[in-house]
Structures are given as structure tokens and as C-alpha cells.
Write a structure and sequence with these properties.
Length: about 675
């Protein structure tokens, strides 16, 4: 049976009108965004099945892929650490911090850090961890855990955030989301610039290259992995893909499922710490690989849950989560579950015990919506049933004794259900009786000790059996005119195959809120100066490409700097490539290629050759420069967030403006 605390949280959530409005807004916007994003993938189901197979292969051969990944990570120069459990992970982190006499830790969003309760452990050791994702920062100020895997503050309204910032940050009360976001940008910028350690999770590790892939929208993920002198990443051992092609597949699914984007604003590919000739980046990168029950879970009936890529789509689709939110998911002792929603109702019992978190699987209608939206086709309904049956990592069912009244009721039901004629007769009588006694659908409440009636209404029995209703519906459907033949699924109505890569790229950039200006090489310097003068910019952070236009810039009164400077309003870089179908530019680290030039200023200007535009992500990831760089970044529009009431706000920690100078003959 479920614990009283679990039921209490559920009732409190349902009665909270602000929470209901917030959850409804999240679900509706996420649903629409997801549908729109996947409309551009005509082969979505094929990709979904392929992704399922990739994740299955990784989990089934985890030891081999881990060995390959660890070897390449070490070869790349990243310091590798293995943690069997949460205590070891925290201990390793604290050892690294002591070696550097660290105090301030700038954290990017990481659910695995919630799993090991990292913030509490660091604070107990005298360190100051600051969450830098806007939603995470909000819930940290409130002393709460995240309510959602992707949108941590989904349970809050703007008025509550305004009151919080007034109390904690001392600003005048406002409910203007852009002002609240700007306040967070201002406060957290100092954290990035002064942190001793930057911390992040890892979305994917690539076995063949030892690559750490981190996906974010706000820019804080780039900040914590680029600006502080030490970067520590914490990664679950299951978060692997075999190759960069497999990574491209996952990246075509994850952002669409999570936030309704074709590609997140920032996709980082980290290979090593700062190299001798690099312009910026951390001097040390550390990777902590965490087991914490995953190998045990892998050998259990719940092993398929390890396929999860943490997109959060199942939370947005779940009718139960939409009513109760993430904070209602607690263990039998009232302790919050590290992972909420349908996915958390399997992960939490799988990693931390059926006795403690098995009750979460009861918070599900088993409607199958979670499986339908899962981008890697995890059969969550089946896994939830296994948790309910007490099947966990131990391999032994966790036996519970059902209430006596429920046992008697089920035995009586079995008597009728095994006799078709008797079942039909009883169903008709029950349906007729329910309508005579009560016109409401909630026609009968059984005592609380059976479970029914405590938080659920017994459904009104149907007057006719399902089979009869189905046959009638089929006959009616056959009378209707046949629908038009469906289009070939390989032909997407949203893709114009005659459109040039340049046109497609430009349209995608415009849709994302960026700007493309086409020029030839003779016009480039003048156009650059015009853009700066238009914005009143007199100082610019440039890479080696900008140095080519030094004289033109200086003649216009614009000074050039090559070192990171928080007061500079514009940064200029050269893009290695562009990606047409997502409107993405690819920037790599290296000598005279400061990544901070595309990150710290509020305006980012990049120069891209028209001939360097590629059709899609896989072609970009195959470029040799990507593997050779210590870090590469895929940039898809200006930085953005929707962490407050799902309201899109441009410009968080990264640039507010992206301008692409597209050169035809450079």
C-alpha cells in the first residue's frame, strides 16, 4: 500500500490552483512544441527504433563500451574517476576540491547530482555550490528540489518568482519575466567568472572518441565547462553511445522530445582540458563515472529503463504528473524521489529500492502515453507493472499482502470473468443499475481500505460489452468513404528538396531569432563595422579571423581585444561549418580561437563561408577538426530559456543576439 505522506502530497497538489495552472501550461506548450519539432522528421519512427536498438546494444554490452570509452577519455587527457555509489562520488569531488583549495562551485543542471545529493554534501564540507540554470537557481533559492527533469521550476508562477527574487536578491518586486531573467544573468555572471570549479552532468559519452557531450540552452553549461580553471563532470555509466553517428541520431531526438527544438542552442563536444596553444578553457577536466546501482539494475527485469536519455517527454504526457507535479513523488518515509514522473517511478525503485519507492508506480493510469512519446521507445507501462508486481534488481519479488476485502473482491470477479455468459449478464445489470441509482459517473465509493474510494472513483460499468460496441463501430466505419491515400512517409511536406542549403540555413537562423547577412569578401569589413556602429560598440573580442580586419576596425574607432573581458559587448568568431536543416553553426577551440568570444558578450557575430554549409548534423560531426579540437560547440541561435511559466526569453547567460555574416567567396 502507499504511504500516508504520498497520499497527502497528492491531495495537496490537486488542491493547489497555482500548481494546477502551472502544470497545465507546461503540458500544453510542451505537447505543441514537440509535435511541431517532429513534423520535420518524416522518418521519426525509424529513428526511434534505431535509437532503441543503439541503447539496447549499449546496455547489453555495457562493459565493452565502458572499457573503450574509458581508454579514449584517458588518452584525451581527461582525469577519470570511478564511483561505486553516491558516497564515493562525493568523496572524489571533495578530494579534487581540496587539491585546488576550492570554495565556490558553479553548477550546471544535472539530475545525477540530485541523485547523489551533491549540493547538501558540498555545503556540509564548507563549499558553496551555486546552481546556474535559471530554473535550478530558483528552486535552490527556495530550498527545494527540481519538480521536473527539464524544467525544474515548472510548479511556480511568475508572481512567486518575483516575490522570491525580491526577498533573496533585494530587487524591487516585478513579475516581468525578462527582468527576472536579466537579474539572474547579472547575479550569476560573477559566479561564472570567480568560481574555482565548474560542474556539469553529461548527456552522452561517445565510446569511439572519448567525447563528453553536454546539451543546454541558456549558456550556463558552456560557462561552467569553459571559464573556471577546473571542470568536473559527473556521468552515469549507462549514458553511452558507440559512435559520433549514433550521437547525431540521439541529438535528432533528444531536443525535439525535451524542449521542442530541432537542436538545443548549445551542444558541446568536449575532448580534453585546455591544450598548450588553446586560447581558453579549463586547465583540468575530471570525469566521475557513477554506478550507484546501475549494474545491478542492468541485470534485473527493469533493465530497459537504462535506455532513458532523460528528455522528460513522459512527464509532459503523463496525466498523473500533470495533476500532481514532481514534488508529490516521495518514498515511504517522505523522502523526495530523485527522479519524478513515469520515468522516476521505475528509476527510483530500481536504483534505491522497491521498499522505499515502489509505491510511485501506483501513480500511473497505465494509459501508455509515456511509451508513445518516448524517443527511444521504452515500454514504461510494462516496467511500471513490473514494479507494482515487486520485480526489482534483486531478482526476487517484493511481496506484499493485499487487503482482505480486495482479495475477496478479486476472487468474486474471477468467478464471473471466467464465464462469458455470466460476465455479460452481470455487466449489463451493473450498468443499468448504476444509471438508475446515480446519473453521475462517480457512482460508487468503496471503503478506503480497498484502495478504491480513497483517491479514485470506481468507473461506471458500460451497458454493453466492449466486443459489441467494437463490432458496431466497425460497421459504421465501413460505411464511411475511404480516406485519401497517405503520403509516402519518406516524403516530408515541410522540406523543399529544391531549396539551396544557403536558403534553408538562412530560414532556420531567422526562425531561431538570429540574423543572416550575405556579403562578398570585399564587403565584409564594411558590413562588420556597420553592425558594430549600429549598436554603439567600440570594443570587440575577436579570434584570428577578426585580426584580418584590424585596420578597418581601428579606423572606425573600434578596439580589438583577444582575452576574455566581461565588459565587452560583442564577440566575433569564424565558424568551421553551418548546418542547413537546423540553422546551426560549428565553432571549435584552438590557438587564437577563444570560445569565450562566442559566449561572454551579449552579441555574437560569426563569419561563415557559404560553401561550408552542410546538409545535416552527421556530416558536421564527421569533420576531422571536430575530433582534433579540445572542444567544439554547435550553436543554434541566441541563448534562451523558458523556465518561468514556459515563457520563451532570449538571452540568458549566453549572447542575446546572433549575427551570421555569410560570405559567398571568402
Amino acid at each position: 500500500m502507499s504511504s500516508p505522506e504520498f497520499h497527502s502530497r497528492i491531495h495537496a497538489s490537486i488542491a493547489d490552483l497555482n500548481l494546477q495552472a502551472a502544470l497545465d501550461g507546461n503540458a500544453e506548450r510542451r505537447k505543441k512544441g514537440r509535435i511541431a519539432a517532429f513534423a520535420s522528421l518524416s522518418d521519426y519512427q525509424e529513428r526511434r527504433q534505431q535509437a532503441h536498438q543503439v541503447r539496447s546494444d549499449v546496455i547489453n554490452h555495457l562493459d565493452e563500451f565502458l572499457a573503450q570509452f574509458c581508454e579514449n577519455v584517458t588518452t584525451n587527457g581527461i582525469s577519470l574517476h570511478h564511483a561505486a555509489d553516491a558516497n564515493e562520488a562525493v568523496s572524489i569531488f571533495l578530494d579534487i576540491a581540496r587539491q585546488h583549495d576550492a570554495h565556490l562551485v558553479a553548477k550546471s543542471k544535472s539530475m545525477v547530482s540530485e541523485e547523489v545529493d551533491l549540493n547538501r554534501a558540498l555545503e556540509a564540507a564548507g563549499l558553496l555550490p551555486i546552481e546556474t540554470d535559471l530554473g535550478e537557481y530558483i528552486v535552490q533559492l527556495r530550498g527545494e528540489r527540481p519538480s521536473h527533469i527539464i524544467t525544474p521550476a515548472v510548479h511556480l508562477r511568475r508572481s512567486e518568482v518575483g516575490e522570491l527574487f525580491q526577498q533573496k536578491l533585494g530587487i524591487p518586486h516585478t513579475e516581468d519575466i525578462s527582468e527576472l531573467t536579466e537579474t539572474a544573468r547579472h547575479v550569476l555572471r560573477l559566479v561564472f567568472l570567480t568560481a574555482d570549479i565548474g560542474f556539469s552532468g553529461v548527456n552522452f559519452g561517445v565510446a569511439e572518441t572519448g567525447t563528453l557531450c553536454i546539451v543546454t540552452n541558456e549558456g550556463n553549461g558552456r560557462m561552467v565547462t569553459t571559464v573556471p580553471p577546473v571542470h568536473i563532470a559527473l556521468m552515469g555509466i549507462e549514458r553511452l553511445v558507440p559512435t559520433l553517428d549514433d550521437l547525431a541520431l540521439m541529438l535528432s531526438l533528444l531536443p525535439r522530445s525535451a524542449t521542442g527544438q530541432k537542436l538545443s542552442v548549445y551542444t558541446q563536444l568536449l575532448h580534453s582540458p585546455r591544450r598548450r596553444n588553446d586560447s581558453d578553457g579549463p586547465r583540468e577536466r575530471h570525469l566521475i563515472l557513477l554506478d550507484n546501482g546501475r549494474k545491478r539494475l542492468r541485470n534485473s527485469p527493469l533493465s530497459e529503463i537504462l535506455y532513458c536519455i532523460r528528455c522528460g517527454a513522459c512527464l509532459n504526457a503523463c496525466p498523473v504528473f500533470r495533476e500532481i507535479g514532481g514534488h508529490a513523488y516521495v518514498g515511504t518515509d517522505g523522502r523526495p524521489a530523485p527522479y519524478p514522473g513515469p520515468i522516476g517511478s521505475v528509476v527510483s525503485p530500481g536504483l534505491f529500492g522497491l521498499q522505499q519507492f515502489g509505491q510511485l508506480a501506483r501513480a500511473s493510469t497505465l494509459c501508455g502515453a509515456c511509451k508513445e512519446v518516448c524517443p527511444v521507445d521504452i515500454d514504461l507501462s510494462r516496467l511500471l507493472l513490473r514494479v507494482r508486481a515487486g520485480q526489482g534488481p534483486s531478482g526476487q519479488p517484493h511481496k506484499t499482502s493485499p487487503p482482505f476485502a480486495l482479495t475477496v473482491g478479486l476472487n468474486i470477479f474471477r468467478l464471473f470473468a471466467t464465464n462469458p455468459l455470466l460476465f455479460t449478464l452481470v455487466q449489463r445489470l451493473a450498468g443499468l443499475k448504476s444509471r438508475l441509482l446515480s446519473p453521475r459517473s462517480s457512482w460508487m465509493h468503496l471503503p478506503a481500505f480497498t484502495g478504491w474510494g480513497y483517491s479514485k472513483d470506481f468507473p461506471r460499468p458500460a451497458l454493453k460489452p466492449f466486443h459489441s460496441r467494437f463490432i458496431r463501430k466497425e460497421m459504421l466505419d465501413n460505411r464511411q468513404p475511404s480516406p485519401k491515400t497517405a503520403a509516402n512517409p519518406s516524403e516530408s511536406p515541410n522540406i523543399d528538396v529544391t531549396k539551396s542549403l544557403v536558403d534553408q540555413f538562412s530560414e532556420e537562423i531567422h526562425t531561431l531569432g538570429g540574423q543572416v547577412i550575405r556579403v562578398n569578401s570585399a564587403q565584409l569589413a564594411g558590413q562588420l563595422v556597420d553592425q558594430l556602429n549600429e549598436r554603439g560598440i567600440t570594443k570587440i573580442h575577436v579570434d584570428e579571423t577578426g585580426a584580418l580586419y584590424k585596420s578597418s576596425l581601428q579606423e572606425s574607432g573600434i578596439s580589438i581585444i583577444h582575452e576574455p573581458d566581461n565588459t565587452v559587448r560583442c564577440g566575433m568568431t569564424a565558424a568551421l561549418a553551418g548546418i542547413a536543416d537546423t540553422g546551426t553553426i560549428l565553432v571549435t577551440s584552438g590557438e587564437d580561437h577563444p570560445l569565450t568570444a562566442s559566449l561572454l558578450p551579449e552579441t555574437h557575430i560569426t563569419i561563415l563561408k557559404a560553401s561550408a554549409i552542410l546538409p545535416s548534423l552527421p556530416e558536421a560531426l564527421r569533420l576531422p577538426e571536430v575530433r582534433q579540437a579540445s572542444a567544439a560547440v554547435l550553436i543554434t541561435g541566441p541563448s534562451r530559456t523558458a523556465d518561468i511559466e514556459m515563457t520563451l526569453t532570449i538571452g540568458v547567460h549566453g549572447p542575446k543576439e546572433l549575427i551570421v555574416l555569410l560570405v559567398d567567396d571568402l
